[in-house]
């Protein structure tokens, strides 16, 4: 893929994550629940680990800044980038067997665990253990909902054939 197409893919992916995270979100006490993870997972599955990392890290951190949570942006950059990278890495090996392959499902579950563990540690660092415990169930819900939506969104993105 040439540099221009790659730049376009990364830019579009970052924008999709930032827009979905920003505008399809539900505020809570210590942040918000959003559907951006479904976009990160889908991009990672369709376009691989680098696209998953870039979209997750930059798009999600940008959304934190836009939504007024700049304190979370560095944590989000690492957490969402890592989850996108992990899903993308597994997808290049196992996606040929289909989106519902158990190894793809396992990678998505690992990504949800990265999401939850990462934000749990970040919340402890920023607000203390009690806040992290209070926030954890909402992150679990966000991860599970995003995982489920990925099985609808990723095949739809793949069918579009954005990049040949």
Report on the structure:
The structure is a single chain. With 164 residues, the protein is mainly α. It has one domain: Arp2/3 complex 21 kDa subunit ARPC3 (Orthogonal Bundle). It has six helices and two strands; from the N terminus they run αββααααα. The protein has helices spanning 3-23, 36-47, 49-66, 73-94, 102-127, 129-160, and strands spanning 25-28, 31-34. Helix 2 runs parallel beside helix 4 (73-94), helix 2 (36-47) packs across helix 6 (129-160) and helix 5 (102-127) packs antiparallel against helix 6 (129-160). The longest helix is centred in the C-terminal third of the chain and has 32 residues, at 129-160. The N and C termini lie close together (9 Å). The model has no long low-confidence stretch (mean pLDDT 90). The chain crosses the membrane at residues 6-26, 38-59, 71-95, 104-130, 136-157. One of its GO terms (cellular component) is membrane. Keywords: Membrane, Transmembrane, Transmembrane helix. InterPro entries: ECF_substrate-spec-like (IPR009825).
Could you give a quick summary of the protein structure above?
The protein is built from 6 helices and 2 strands, in the order αββααααα. With 164 residues, it is mainly α.
Provide key terms for this protein.
164 residues, mainly alpha, Arp2/3 complex 21 kDa subunit ARPC3, two-stranded antiparallel sheet, 6 helices
Helix-strand blueprint:
Blueprint: H1 3-23, E1 25-28, E2 31-34, H2 36-47, H3 49-66, H4 73-94, H5 102-127, H6 129-160
Antiparallel strand pairs: 1-2
Helix pairs in contact: 1-2, 1-3, 2-3, 2-4, 2-6, 3-4, 4-5, 5-6
Transmembrane segments: 6-26, 38-59, 71-95, 104-130, 136-157
Keywords: Membrane, Transmembrane, Transmembrane helix
Pfam family, one: ECF-ribofla_trS
């Amino acid at each position: 893929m040439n540099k221009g197409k790659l730049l376009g893919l990364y830019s579009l992916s970052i924008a999709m994550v930032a827009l979905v995270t920003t505008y399809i979100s539900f505020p809570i006490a210590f942040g918000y629940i959003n559907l951006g993870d479904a976009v990160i997972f889908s991009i990672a599955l369709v376009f691989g680990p680098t696209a998953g990392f870039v979209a997750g890290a930059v798009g999600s951190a940008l959304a934190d800044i836009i939504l007024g949570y700049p304190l979370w942006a560095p944590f989000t950059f690492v957490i969402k980038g890592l989850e996108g990278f992990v899903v993308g890495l597994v997808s290049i090996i196992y996606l040929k067997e289909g989106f519902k392959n158990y190894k793809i499902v396992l990678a998505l579950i690992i990504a949800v665990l990265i999401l939850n563990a990462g934000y749990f540690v970040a919340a402890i660092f920023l607000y203390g253990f009690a806040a992290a415990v209070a926030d954890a169930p909402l992150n679990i819900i966000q991860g599970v909902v995003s995982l489920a939506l990925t099985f609808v969104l990723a095949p739809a993105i793949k069918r579009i054939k954005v990049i040949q």
